Every structure is written in structure tokens, then in C-alpha cells.
């Protein structure tokens, strides 16, 4: 099963490599990875999506917790949560395709953020499933390039991942 | 207020931390630190002949004393040479602090002379690592390094120190930090009381219980408490290789150690148990054999200080995260006035165990007769007698290591010093050196083989310089015995590179360093050689003992089998 694990990490040099190294060292799998500073300059928030059965996920969270640079973590998929990813897609847009791209983007509530005579660049946010569906829908028209941020997430309601 | 350079802070911190001795090798990036060490006399520096030996010596000291071992090496090759020793300590959870010189910070990343990203290189084999970014942070970072190395599940910590951080011209305020706090690191001590109660209830109801304990008992200093608990309950106990000595091996309740080359009765008892109480052990593959066939009828209580060790390879029914000593003491208080409920079943259980013991009694190996080549096993037994079972014993890796573990009976923890997890050839001799320097009154014996000894024999020079009187027992079978055993069993005796042709004349080699060497080739020569070797506990003596090159280590678990699937000799199998 797919899990989204969010980690508060010391904002220290080398901290990220410890997390990433752990996954390769122990043969765990990383599907997406997203990391950025938080409102507290001493902390980064890292979100990783991974796939594994309960035993593997338990090992992943235990080993992550063991890293000295990991301050706190949560497996968001254990509760209600919001999952978002941002994607930028360059699509070949010539002739009739221009309308088709625009229509499809509208259906997905995506925005066209850059235009040339032959290319549209589309920005879309949503969960990973929505982004996959958009890629699928655009594929026949001609995708030139895709840039995805990887999943970020947050728990619904009062639940917090803070110190 | 005291102003010190970074280098002087390091020397001063070591003194304030109570470190008496460090092991190392100088080089460009560490020279400011070496100069600071030269100008003080609280901390003794032992100059090894290869950085790997520095880590093993510090490791041996740490295993014997329970205190962190300290290493100082220079950047680049100095640091990379230390990696094997760091990994060895990591796999066996040994507290160690490794100070590495580094090129000056403005050169980092430029492929400067003797530059290596040692924090990156060692990342998978350290508990944690630090890079010094300003001289003023040295005391706090070092305190954190020692704190991390020695608490919780211990392990090696690397501190990378760019040369400019130790420059003699830059001085900063030095205060010894008595305590440090790391917000993300709060090792547990006490276990969950509800879980402990549940475990004790299961123990008291068990019909065929076995304690299975590991290195956590030794590093957690819990062997007295463990012995108390085990004797109150009257249960059998088996230890891992790392846990040897955690419970006195001569006691009737001790089944010896378990696993690939563990005793027949220990492996049989594990397989037939209905309750396994694992404490400070990690169910590693050399213990469990095939996990899908592991102990089919047993419920498992697993106590460990490291949550990630629990249910890693074998699912625990009652997981307890806590320090061995604290959890055991809580268990003792719960069993205080209670008796195991099934005393009759326990009696039957002991009958089965005694039966297994009797089956193998006197059949473990065939001793040599006069005129024949010595058996390695009987050499270990003779050394055991010669040292009254009281020596610190280090080993290298291979057949001699298993024989030492099988035939030297340890009554105390911290006495059997071996590279269990990583299996590092070359470990034994420098480890013995590190122990002997701190325990000059004790006999320190290193069991080794020609293969392993030649990996670290340059340390004879260190022993000469610092007058280190270890006893080296070389079980010379003229081959890489364990490799050859596997080739005999799995490769139709095709001995691909497991032979040792062109061995040196060890006696001459040892004598070249000014030490005593005794060559033993026959049965009759052993007793007088041992007598001579242990005359003076502070004299380095090398015993080059030629043993039967065809001997195998048994029992040996059959690959992919269960705990009880064992080869018992070249012709017998369970």
C-alpha cells in the first residue's frame, strides 16, 4: 500500500542525505520526495511517498525515527489528510490541439501559465491520481515535458505535526 | 574565562570527559590536534601502524570497559582506513568516537590533497556524525558525540574537523559542557509496564520457555539482573555470540550459544520452545536460519532498546521497548513471590533438554592422540585451563572464532570480544592491544588464524613501542578454514583461494620485533608451550600452533532449514 510520510527534519547540512541514504541502504522504496523549510527556520519538512506492506512501513518509520536529525514524523495515510502535488506540463499546441489542450485544462481546473505559438505550459495541482489522469488525457495530444513537485500533505482537522 | 584554540579545546575536552587513552595516526589535517596533544599529559595517545587498528583497539577497549573508545585520524586515507573499524563497531553497537581531520573548510569540495567526504563515506555505518563549522562549537559537538555514542543503543559517532577549526591562532572561550540536550534524541529506559506484566504472565504460564539474550545484556550491564531473573524462574537460557558471558556459561541453566554454530541443545530447545523471551538480541540471520521455519510453536517476547530491532525479521507477540536492565528488574519485581504455574511441564522440558545434552556428550569432537596433529578445539580448551577461564579473549574471524566461542567457557560479561555482526578479519589482535593497555593485570588472549593475523600483524610494532603483552594464539591450519569448510560442503571441495601457501615463518617474524614465539606442531608440545606463554602476563608471546587442517566447525545449521536442522559432524545430521 502507498503511504505518505511527513517528517520534520533538522535544517542541517547532510540531514537530507541521511534520510535518502536510509531508503537506499535498507532497500526501501521512494516514489516521491519533497522537502522545503518550514515557518521555523531550524526545521525542514520532508514528505516522502513510499510503497510497502505494514511490516515494511513499520520498519521505515522506526528507522526514520532513529535518525538523530529526524525530530518528528507522521504517516499521514493513517488518518484523514490532504494530499497535493503541483505539476507543470509542456504540451505541443498547434492548430486544433490548442483548443483541445485548453478544454482539457479547464476540465481539470488547470491553468495555462505560459504560451508560445506552438507550446502551452499548463500548471495543475491535486492529488497524485488527478495528476496521473491529466497526464493520461494529454498524452495523445503530445506531452513535451513534465515537472512534478512530488507529494506534499497535511493532516485534516486539529491534528498537527509540530514540536 | 579560558581562551583556547580548537585543537587545545579537543585535548582539553578529552581530559574533562575522563578519556585516558586514544588511538590514532597523525597526518596533515590533524597536525594542530597532534600538537595540542603533545603539549599536555592527561590523555595518552597510542600510535598504531594502520588506522583500522586504531578503531579496533578503541573498540576492544570499549567492549571490555563499557566506555566509549576514542580514535583520532587524519583526513582522506587516514579516515577511509578507519571505515572498516567504524562499521565493525556499528554492527555490534559499540560506543566509539572517531575524530577525523579534514582539509580546511575553504578547500572542501575542491578535491584537495587528502580530501574525502568522510561524513558521506561513513553515513551508513555510524550512529550519527558531525562536521565542525566553527571552533567555538567544538566542546558542545564533542559532548554530543560522546553522549550519542554511549547512550541508548550505543554506536560509533564520527566528528569531521576541518583543519582551520583547530588553528592555533584562533582562540575561543572554553567551557566543558556537563550536559547536552538533543531535542530529537530521547532514548527510552523503562519499558511499558503493561507489556512487561503481560510478558511475565506468559513466562509464568509457559511450559517450554527459553531465554534468548544478546549483546544488549552486555552493553546494558544487565547480566547480574538477568542471572537473577533466570535463576528465579529456573528456565533454560541461550545467548547469542554477542551475548556470551551475559549469563555464566558453566551454570546448568545455560545451554551455551545458539545459531549457525550454536550448541545442539540450544538450537533444539529454541525449535521446540513454546515461549521465547528475547532480550537485547536482534534475531539476525546467523541465529534464526530460515525465518519462515523459525521456532514454529513459540510465542515471542522481544525486549530491545531499539524499536527498529523489534519485528524486523521475526514478528514479536509482545514487543517491549526499553533498556535490558530496567525491564529485567521490573520483571524480577513481578515474579518476586510467584512460581511458574507449570512446574510439571517445566520438569518435562528439562528432561528433554538433558536428553539433548546427553546425546552429544563426549561427541563434540575427537581429541588428538599422541603423535597426531592437534585439534583446534583442544587448543582452546587447554588455553581455557591455562587461564583459569579468566582471560579477556579476543578473536579474529573464521573457524578459530567459532571454536573459541564454543570451548572457552565465559563466566562474566565483557570478556569475549569478537566481531560478531560485521565479521571483520584482523579485528582480534588490535582489539586485544586496546584491552591490554587498560587492563595490564589481566591476561589478554587473542585467538587468531594465519589469514586474519596477517591482516593486522603490523601492530606488533605498536606493541613493541608501548610494551603491550598480549598472548596471540595462532591456530595455524595453513588455510582459510571457514572458507574451506564451506567449499567442502557446498563446492565439492574445490578450494578456490582458501589455501595459504607461502606462509611466513611466524616465529622469525615475531622475533624480528623482539618478542617470544613458540611453534607447536605436536600434541606433546602444547602443554609446555602454554606453561611458558603465561609465565609473565605482560610479555607478548605468540603461539604458532599447527592444527588439523581438515577439521570443520560443528554443529552447523543446514542452510534454509529450521533451528534444529544441523550437521553434527562430517557424517551425522539431525
TrEMBL record, chain A:
Tell me a GO cellular component: cytosol
Instruction: Tell me the GO BP annotations in alphabetical order.
Output: isoleucine biosynthetic process; L-valine biosynthetic process
> What EC number is given for this enzyme?
2.2.1.6
| Catalyzed chemical reaction(s) | 2 pyruvate + H(+) = (2S)-2-acetolactate + CO2
Q: Name one GO molecular function term.
A: acetolactate synthase regulator activity
Q: Which pathway is this protein engaged in?
A: Amino-acid biosynthesis; L-isoleucine biosynthesis; L-isoleucine from 2-oxobutanoate: step 1/4; Amino-acid biosynthesis; L-valine biosynthesis; L-valine from pyruvate: step 1/4
**ACT domain location, by residue?**
4-78
Record's function text? Catalyzes the conversion of 2 pyruvate molecules into acetolactate in the first common step of the biosynthetic pathway of the branched-amino acids such as leucine, isoleucine, and valine.
| Subunit annotation | Dimer of large and small chains.
**Which family is this protein grouped under?**
Belongs to the acetolactate synthase small subunit family.
Name of protein: Acetolactate synthase small subunit
Lineage, highest ranks first: Bacteria, Pseudomonadati, Pseudomonadota, Gammaproteobacteria, Oceanospirillales
From TrEMBL, chain B:
Q: Which GO terms describe its cellular component?
A: acetolactate synthase complex
Q: Which SUPFAM superfamilies match?
A: DHS-like NAD/FAD-binding domain (SSF52467), Thiamin diphosphate-binding fold (THDP-binding) (SSF52518)
EC number(s) on file: 2.2.1.6
**Origin: domain of life:** Bacteria
Q: Where is the Thiamine pyrophosphate enzyme N-terminal TPP-binding domain?
A: 5-119
Q: Name the pathway.
A: Amino-acid biosynthesis; L-isoleucine biosynthesis; L-isoleucine from 2-oxobutanoate: step 1/4; Amino-acid biosynthesis; L-valine biosynthesis; L-valine from pyruvate: step 1/4
- Whether Flavoprotein counts among this entry's keywords is yes
Q: Name one GO molecular function term.
A: magnesium ion binding
In this protein, which residues make up the domain named Thiamine pyrophosphate enzyme TPP-binding? 396-545
Tell me the keywords, alphabetical order.
Amino-acid biosynthesis, Branched-chain amino acid biosynthesis, FAD, Flavoprotein, Magnesium, Metal-binding, Thiamine pyrophosphate, Transferase
| Classification via Gene3D superfamilies | 3.40.50.970, TPP-binding domain (3.40.50.1220)
Q: Which residues form the Thiamine pyrophosphate enzyme central domain?
A: 196-330
Q: What is this protein called?
A: Acetolactate synthase
